[in-house]
Amino acid sequence: MRYGYWMPVFGGWLRNIEDEHMEASWSYVKKLTQRSEVLGYDLTLIAELNLNDIKGPQAPSLDAWSTAAALAAVTEKIELMVAVRPTFHLPALLPSRLRTLTR
């Protein structure tokens, strides 16, 4: 069995709780991902969303592609998966974007 989690790119995923004590920041997701590796998690799924539809469009949100690329540089074994939105990218261009994330 493999274990993973959704990366809190919005600082959490709950609509009815204003502050889940998870920041939508590079320092928080870096620390979370590195700790997840130590604990033995296998993967994290990073949602590709351009605005924070959970906490509101004015709230902070991390970009999935730059977050995944930055995490690849500071982690060793955790699998970083970007949840690609269907019809959001041209199919011919998506593979070249994915190649930038290889370790």
Features:
3 helices; 3 strands; 103 residues; 30% helix; 3-stranded parallel β-sheet; alpha/beta
How many individual helices?
A: 3
Total number of β-strand segments?
A: 3
Q: Calculate the mean pLDDT score and round it.
A: 85
Report the C-alpha radius of gyration, rounded: 14 Å
The helicity comes to: 25-40%
Query: In terms of per-residue confidence, which ranges show pLDDT below 50 for 5 or more consecutive residues?
Result: none
State the assembly state of the protein chains: single chain
Query: Mind describing the biggest β-sheet?
Result: 3 strands, parallel
Give the strand line-up of the largest sheet: 1-2-3
Tell the overall outline: globular
What does this structure look like?
The structure is a single chain. The protein is an alpha/beta fold. 30% of the residues lie in helices and 13% in strands. It contains 3 helices and 3 strands; from the N terminus they run E-H-E-H-E-H. The chain has helices at residues 26-39, 64-74, 94-99; strands at 4-6, 43-47, 79-83. The protein has a 3-stranded parallel β-sheet with strand order 1-2-3, covered by helices on one side. The longest helix has 14 residues, at 26-39. It is globular, with a radius of gyration of 14 Å. 17% of the residues are buried. The model has no long low-confidence stretch (mean pLDDT 85).
Helix and strand layout, with pairings?
Blueprint: E1 4-6, H1 26-39, E2 43-47, H2 64-74, E3 79-83, H3 94-99
